[in-house]
């Protein structure tokens, strides 16, 4: 059976965590699209992990364990936690689990600082059972460890990107990975926008390839925002550069009622309107693009809202923050956060929304002097009675730091992948599953 989604037991709702005293926002998965959807929201035909017979099988699961590390310690294990439903499911079904991931950018050769060993330790704690660690992801030693696996055992392979062949999607390397397993599961949504050996190439050499629960949950939530959105639909776009998000904004112009702009990219829009922006970050070569986006939006009756006031300072790390109106930006100051009047206006628009999609912080939220705008928007999104999706690594971090993560319908684990998907692009990792031969 193809294309039928299921969820692991006890996880029938997106974001089922609960905070005492806080209105619980549960969004039944049944409200979403049952079949997986491609980049334009079209139905794609793929196997689900729950379609597979896993008992006694060697199961190769591509996960996204690309976690932040400091001094060899994991500083945020959200991505490991997010993979647990699929991992536990395979173990409950008596599969022999082989986990594979990349970590960082080791440039195709082993680099100890990018070893996945700390992840094996953390996963052992989370699962309450030993997770073996392989010193490589291919080769004789890995084959020996795999052949010794018993039903319900877990083996984590060393970083896939210690081999340059991974990112080159090298067929021989993909075949070596495939030879380790009987079935393949892709649960690495965060790597789905890359056509690498472990996300795309491998699928040609396995008998069955299926989407894991995290992959399904991500695609369902993002597809909902693309195809089933209730109106008013509010998109919030911030971050450093307009150039990274042109396609995203174009896609929102086709879908949203209002687009709230924040972050440095607002200044390229201001320049397009002929305003002075002081030392604020502007992409001069994208001023024309900003003009075109504003014209397109007005032709479609979509409101592009820009900040009316902002927090300015001499530099990114200064503590001399001052609030002022956009019109009065002094030549020696840069805008680093949206101001309180903008927060009030944006919060009111967000409060009325039924669908909210947010990508990119409203300011330099890493510095507490410029974090208030982003945190206030995070609270407004959390309080709205809406289907809310946050995508983007920095935006997800900002939502977590604002302490409202559990009140957002879906916080995506994939920065680039969610951006590309919401921009209407196809994800090679998902498309590969669609093409997989089965049974
Ligand atoms: P990621 O790219 O990690 O997925 P994201 O899409 O959520 O994250 P980005 O577009 O990368 O966000 O932008 C985040 C960066 O933009 C942050 O480092 C933030 O400091 C920076 N930024 C936001 N506002 C400004 C501003 N006014 N001036 C300069 N930098 C800014």
Can you walk me through this structure?
By secondary structure, the protein is an alpha/beta fold. It is 32% helix and 16% strand. The chain is built from 14 helices and 20 strands. It has helices spanning 78-92, 117-127, 140-147, 164-167, 171-178, 213-227, 246-255, 265-272, 287-299, 340-351, 372-383, 393-401, 415-422, 428-435; strands at 13-14, 27-28, 47-48, 58-62, 69-70, 73-74, 96-100, 132-133, 154-156, 183-186, 208-211, 233-237, 258-261, 303-305, 309-313, 322-325, 334-338, 355-359, 387-391, 410-411. It has a 7-stranded parallel beta sheet with strand order 3-11-10-4-7-9-8, sandwiched between helices. A 6-stranded parallel beta sheet has the order 14-13-12-18-19-20, with helices on both faces. It has a 3-stranded antiparallel beta sheet with strand order 16-15-17. Helix 12 links the parallel strand 19 and strand 20 (410-411). Helix 1 (78-92) packs across helix 2. The longest helix is centred in the N-terminal third of the chain and has 15 residues, at 78-92. The relative contact order is 0.14. Mean pLDDT is 89; it is low at 1-34. Adenosine-5'-triphosphate is lined by residues 239-240, 244, 263-264, 281, 335-336, 359-361, 363-364, 366, 392-395, 415.
């Amino acid at each position: 059976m193809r294309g039928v989604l299921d969820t692991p037991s006890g996880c029938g709702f997106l974001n089922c965590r609960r905070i005492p005293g806080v209105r619980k926002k549960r969004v039944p998965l049944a409200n979403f699209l049952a079949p997986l959807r491609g980049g334009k929201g079209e139905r794609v035909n793929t196997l689900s992990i729950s379609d597979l017979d896993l008992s006694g099988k060697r199961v190769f699961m591509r996960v996204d364990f690309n976690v932040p590390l400091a001094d060899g310690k994991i500083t945020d294990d959200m991505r490991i936690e997010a993979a647990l439903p699929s991992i536990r499911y395979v173990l409950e079904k008596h599969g022999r689990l082989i986990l594979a991931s990349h970590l960082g950018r080791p440039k195709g050769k082993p680099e100890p600082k990018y070893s996945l060993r700390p992840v094996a330790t953390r996963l052992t704690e989370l699962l309450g059972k030993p997770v073996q660690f392989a010193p490589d992801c291919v080769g004789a030693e890995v084959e020996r460890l795999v052949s010794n696996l018993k039903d319900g055992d877990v083996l984590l392979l060393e970083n896939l990107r210690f081999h340059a062949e991974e990112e080159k999607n090298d067929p021989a390397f993909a075949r070596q990975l495939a030879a380790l397993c009987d079935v393949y599961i892709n649960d690495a949504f965060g790597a789905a926008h890359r056509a690498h050996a472990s996300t795309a190439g491998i699928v040609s050499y396995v008998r069955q390839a299926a989407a894991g629960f995290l992959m399904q949950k991500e695609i369902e939530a993002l597809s909902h925002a693309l195809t089933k959105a209730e109106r008013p639909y509010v998109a919030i776009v911030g971050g450093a550069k307009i150039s990274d998000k042109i396609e995203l904004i174009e896609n929102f112009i086709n879908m949203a009622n209002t687009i709230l702009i924040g972050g440095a990219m607002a200044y390229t829009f201001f320049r397009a309107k002929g305003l002075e922006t002081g030392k604020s970050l502007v992409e001069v070569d994208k001023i024309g693009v900003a003009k075109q986006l504003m014209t397109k939006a007005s032709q479609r009756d979509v409101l592009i809202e820009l900040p009316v006031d902002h927090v300015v300072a001499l530099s990114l790390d200064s503590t001399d923050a001052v609030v002022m109106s956009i019109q009065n930006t002094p030549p020696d100051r840069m805008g680093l956060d949206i101001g309180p009047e903008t927060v009030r206006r944006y919060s009111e628009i967000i409060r009325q929304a039924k669908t909210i999609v947010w990508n990119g912080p409203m300011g330099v939220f890493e510095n507490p002097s410029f974090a208030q705008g982003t945190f206030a928007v995070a609270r407004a999104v959390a309080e709205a009675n809406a289907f809310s999706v946050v995508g983007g690594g920095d935006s997800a971090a900002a939502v977590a730091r604002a302490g409202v993560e559990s009140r957002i319908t879906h916080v995506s684990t994939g920065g680039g992948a969610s951006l590309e998907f919401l921009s209407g692009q196809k994800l090679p990792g998902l498309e590969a599953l669609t093409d997989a031969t089965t049974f």
